[in-house]
Design brief:
single chain, 340 residues, alpha/beta, TIM Barrel, eight-stranded parallel β-barrel, two-stranded antiparallel sheet, 10 strands, 41% helix, 13% strand, globular
Length: 340
């Protein structure tokens, strides 16, 4: 699959843009585990053109994580165009337009998925940004605003006509937020529309390697995007890529190995940000990790993770967890030569 001249290979697996999740450390780790393309956190166009420091920091990307997309959101043409020009100077591989974020503080103000209620403005913004920059422009959106307004089949053609180079579709409406099951039937309908020429990327509820393969085989999408399933499980990309290539589950990822990956995630986050910001970012990932599912009476430990303020606190919690995961003092099952 190609986005413009960017060749992502066959059946690429992408890391979804997620606020307070896809920081530089996490993007790089997912890339090392097999993500074919990664996306930054959401970048507010309004904040970017006002030179808000915290927003400008989101433009920091490194060559090791390429290809990488910077995603922007906003609600008016001039602001989005100006923001796109600023983003272009950060030299990402792709500029992605967020027309899918469902949270109230974004969609409720008409940006993100709020654009699904004003398609003419969405298309005007898209055309203007495509014309204003030289980089490939892509879009991420949803099926529609609610169950009575699933407009994605028609909208996909309209966005393609604006000049975008790829379209990512989350298989839910804005009204669904992240509840219920993602509906991939309309994603498949868009992909199988003979008038569509650009790559279609499917997103929503890809939580296992088996589901990843099914989405490729059943719906014919050009790529898949993994979001929440990567929380505390960056190795999911390694598992998916192995299954797509072999049809077999990846063996040998022991609890000790996975816990060491999470330790490294803490280290990387602190090193690339700083201790305060790094811990704020990473503790949410850790508390959601499927590695800890099934541990009896784990609620208090999870709360402690979410409240941790220092690296030492988190690492001490890990040491307490080791015996609960059946990890002894021996490091023989940690696969020390490589995380990859």
């Amino acid at each position: 699959m190609k986005i413009a001249a960017i060749d992502l290979g066959e059946r690429p697996v992408l890391l979804a843009p997620m606020e307070d999740v896809t920081d530089p450390a996490f993007r790089l780790m997912c890339k090392e585990f097999g993500a074919d393309m990664v996306y930054t956190e959401f970048v507010s166009a309004d904040a970017l053109i006002r030179s808000v420091s915290k927003t400008e920091q989101k433009l920091n990307i490194g060559d090791a994580e390429r290809p990488v997309a910077i995603q922007i959101y906003g609600r008016d043409v001039a602001t989005m165009v100006e923001a796109a020009k600023i983003v272009e100077q950060a030299h990402p591989d792709v500029i992605d337009l967020n027309f899918g974020c469902p949270v109230k503080r974004v969609a409720g103000k008409g940006a993100g998925a709020g654009m699904l209620r004003n398609v003419p403005l969405m298309l005007e913004i898209t055309r203007a940004v495509v014309d204003a920059v030289r980089l490939p422009v892509t879009v991420k959106t949803r099926l529609g605003w609610d169950a009575d307004n699933k407009i994605i089949v028609t909208l996909a053609e309209q966005l393609q006509d604006c000049g975008i180079q790829a379209l990512t579709i989350h298989g839910r409406t804005r009204a669904q937020m992240y509840t219920g099951e993602a509906d991939w039937t309309l994603i498949g309908e868009v992909k199988n529309n003979p008038r569509m020429r650009i790559p279609i990327i499917g997103n929503g509820d890809i939580t296992t390697p088996q589901r990843a393969r099914e989405c490729f085989d059943r719906y014919g999408v050009d790529a898949i995007m993994v979001g929440r399933a990567s929380f505390g499980r960056p190795w999911i990309f390694k598992e998916i890529k192995h299954y797509l290539q072999t049809g077999e589950d990846l063996q040998g990822l022991t609890p000790a190995w996975k816990l060491d990956v999470l330790r490294r995630e803490v280290d990387d986050s602190v090193r690339l940000l700083d201790e305060r910001r790094g811990i704020l970012h990473v503790r949410r990932h850790l508390a959601a990790s499927p590695l800890f599912k099934g541990i009896p009476n784990f609620r208090e430990t999870r709360i402690a993770m979410l409240r941790a303020e220092t690296q030492a606190e988190l690492l001490d919690i890990f040491r307490q967890i080791e015996p609960l995961l059946g990890i002894g003092s021996s490091a023989s099952d940690r696969q020390p030569d490589s995380f990859l």
